[in-house]
Amino acid sequence: MIELSHVTKRFGDEMAVDDVSFKVAKGEFCALVGTSGCGKSTTLRMINRLLEHSEGEILLDGQPIRDFDAVQLRRRIGYVIQSTGLFPHWTVARNIGLVPRLLKWPSTKVHSRVEQLMHLLGLPVGEFAHKFPHQLSGGQAQRVGVARALAADPDILLMDEPFGALDPITREKLQEELRALQSRLHKTIVFVTHDIDEALQLANHLVVMRAGRVVQQGTPLELLHHPADKFVESMLGGVERGLKQAGLTRVADHMLPLSPTLPAQSRVPSSMSLRQALSVMLRDHTERLTVVDPHDMPVGELSMRKLIREPKADQGHDREH
Amino acid sequence: MSLKDAMPVEKGRLSWFSPNWVLLLLSTIALGAFFGLETASVAPNRIVSGTGYLVFSALGWQGALLGMVLILALIGFSCIAECQEYRDAYKAMLVIVMALLALMPFALMVATSRLVDSDLPQARLGIGAGFWVTLFVLLLALVELRTRLALARIWSWSLLLPIGLLWWLCLSLWLEPLALMREYHSRSEQFSEAFRQHLELVGTAVGVSLMLGMGLALLMRRYPRSQKAAFAILNFLQTIPSLALFGLLLAPLAWLAANLPLAASLGISGIGWAPALVALVAYSLLPMVRNTFIALEEVSPAVIDAAYGMGMDTRQVFLQVRLPLALPVMLEGVRITTVQAIGLTTVAALIGAGGFGTFVFQGLGQAAMDMVLLGALPILLMASVADALLGAVSDFLRPGGAK
């Protein structure tokens, strides 16, 4: 568990981070969101002591991080950055094995761990182990970056805009993979991004920052339902908030039993997001959709009229619940 | 009908004429020099200036014909080099150039047997302008061919090595009457002594400036405020003319030798190796410090950030990340410094430091061009070999073979 209480960071007279407090419970995925220069990266870098905080306290499993040796602390925390920071003079395998080797694992153990991680991240060992970073695509390099961060099996993972430099398609793919990875590994993740969609998709706790201060924090749906001020609201997409909210719920949550009338022509799988289902309605000029299970069997229907009449409080549940 | 047939044919234009202009120019110059300039000159002894001979009298009509055919073939191939249908033109040219280079020492042997009167024991054969220009132009052509054929460094060296060996064999076994060899034979001991001195001076200067340069670069990284001043001083040192610097060092070193018994016993004096070494180190510092400093400074901050973030300590970051990544650029500094020092050491002969410069300046004094060459050619060779070797090492150390 990570806990920041009243943390402040000053560079000279400039206040980079001002009285920031938040908690990340074990296994939780926390996203720090904000425009560039809002202090989110600075906050992240204080957690692994790449920067020392000026005031306040940062606790790791209840213990102040200043009690640990900075170098030892960092070896316990995975760290992924935007430009990957892979060592260009080392092979992929050697890059991934970095932290285990720093921790003086026996070489056979390092070797098998590297192979295990390459499998986990979809990097065929035969093809990639002996490649150098400059021979990789952006997406592959970032996979290696994530593998390197996970190498010594840390409980905590810090990620600083890891997908910021990737093209949209690769980014989406890696986001999907990270979500799948997280559902298996249950790491405690602090993730810095300026992309609110990325944050809404991945995190179950959002911390919105502005000019070094926390403006609002909560679950994605809490923020979408009750943005604290105009800044958070515009951050969340202004009038498009409704769609973003729909993007976080599944068709299954809003499905009605099949009505006795003629079923609608357009079909959508129940695992689809509500946002995509609305898009299908617009595309097919229909206000009713037939919901099908993975075997294409109708299991219910979705009606635009009924959706609009749903009481606000019931509007979906957080996906993670 | 293929796409090619459908293309309009340009009438009135020679379809095969798509030359490599560089090689065409070079081979034309070679042809001109081969016939227009003196191939060799013969002098009965060291003092009398020689009589020049053109290619027909030096090599006979057979030799002239063989040379002409080969050079004309070069011209021909360079005219079609860029043509799609003749992809192997460059390879053919490489073979011809190598053949020409290999034949040149034999041409000298032919000229010797034809021109030098064996009854005159002091008679000597001078290499003429035509020969030198042809050799130079062929080497330039080799550089161009290497780029065109994208030959790896190691390849071009393995091609040049047997030719170098052949030259060496011919020179040492059969080319006794060559003026250059006569000069060498009359002072072969001085020659090896000069070689040793030259190597020692360059080696020590590069070694010392490498240590000092590393130290200075590290200090400048630690105290950023000193950078401007340090670079200003090093730049200033670089602008002093080398002879002036030797002169400037004369007085303080002489004083040191006179007043410090230890200095005198070490062989330090106003002239000789001590001022030469100090001056060489002073000149070598700028390229060394600049390259080391920039190399260390320019390692990607993201990589350094990641290194610390992964939990490397300061020492590990420096030794395992910063230094290895900076090494190729640092070696580039060593390469520049070494080549520069090999050249500068020539001048050091003027203050009695020895080295190949001795021959150059003695030769100039006696108007004996062959003796100047005896000093200048080894310097040229040393510089190219040092350049190539250090360049290869630097290539080898680039991360993951990245260029």
Automatic annotation (TrEMBL), chain A:
Keyword Cell division: no
Top-level taxon of the source organism: Bacteria
Record keywords, A-Z: ATP-binding, CBS domain, Nucleotide-binding, Transport
One MF term in the entry's GO annotations: ATP hydrolysis activity
Record-given protein name: ABC transporter ATP-binding protein
ABC transporter domain boundaries: 2-236
Species, as recorded: Vreelandella rituensis
InterPro entries per UniProt: AAA+_ATPase, ABC_transporter-like_ATP-bd, ABC_transporter-like_CS, CBS_dom, CBS_dom_sf, P-loop_NTPase
GO terms for biological process, alphabetical: quaternary ammonium group transport
Domain CBS: 255-319
Gene3D superfamilies in the cross-refs: P-loop containing nucleotide triphosphate hydrolases
Lineage of origin: Bacteria, Pseudomonadati, Pseudomonadota, Gammaproteobacteria, Oceanospirillales
Similarity comment: family membership: Belongs to the ABC transporter superfamily.
UniProtKB/TrEMBL annotation, chain B:
A GO cellular component entry from the record: plasma membrane
SUPFAM superfamilies membership: MetI-like
Keyword Signal assigned: no
One matching Pfam family: BPD_transp_1
Transmembrane segments: 21-41, 53-80, 92-111, 123-142, 154-175, 201-220, 232-256, 262-286, 341-361, 373-397
Keywords, in A-Z order: Membrane, Transmembrane, Transmembrane helix, Transport
Membrane-topology annotation of the record: Multi-pass membrane protein
Biological process according to GO: glycine betaine transport; transmembrane transport
PROSITE patterns named in the record: ABC_TM1 (PS50928)
Source superkingdom: Bacteria
Localization terms from the record: Cell membrane
Record flagged with keyword Cell division: no
Entry's family note: Belongs to the binding-protein-dependent transport system permease family.
Protein name: ABC transporter permease
Annotated organism of origin: Vreelandella rituensis
